[in-house]
Amino acid sequence: MASDSGATDREEPRVERRKMVTLPQEEFEAMLERAAERGARHALHGVGLDGADAAHDIRELRSLLDAFNEAKKTAWLTIVRMLVTGLVMATLAGAFVKLKVFGGGQ
């Protein structure tokens, strides 16, 4: 039995070598480039960005995303400013109340 498994181990690399394909580097790179371009076109077609206006649509989407991110940033800054302003006003109100309490007796 041990000799049988050794024989199949020796045959497998030959089978794998027969499945290999060799191409010149330039031809391989050109084939990869064509496949990548075809895949990219297929993906763009899948999301509806394959027409003549695709570049314009993508620029608009990027612009919209930039505007959305800017609005989020502005909203957070506004919330932080409102909280800080509220805390300062509460502190000032507390100080005025305290001063009136002490000043009211005079």
Structure description:
- The chain has helices spanning 2-19, 25-46, 54-104.
- It is mainly alpha-helical and 106 residues long.
- It folds into two domains: 1-50, no CATH class; 53-106.
- The longest helix has 51 residues, at 54-104.
Q: Structural class of the helices, strands and pairings?
A: mainly alpha
What's the total helix number? 3
The termini sit apart by 111 Å
Helix coverage percent: over 70%
Radius of gyration: 36 Å
The total of beta strands comes to 0
Order of helices and strands: HHH
The largest sheet is:
none
Tertiary shape: elongated
Write a brief caption for the model.
It contains three helices and no strands.
Which features does this protein show?
single chain, mainly alpha, 3 helices, about 85% helix, about 110 residues
Q: How is the secondary structure organized here?
A:
Blueprint: H1 2-19, H2 25-46, H3 54-104
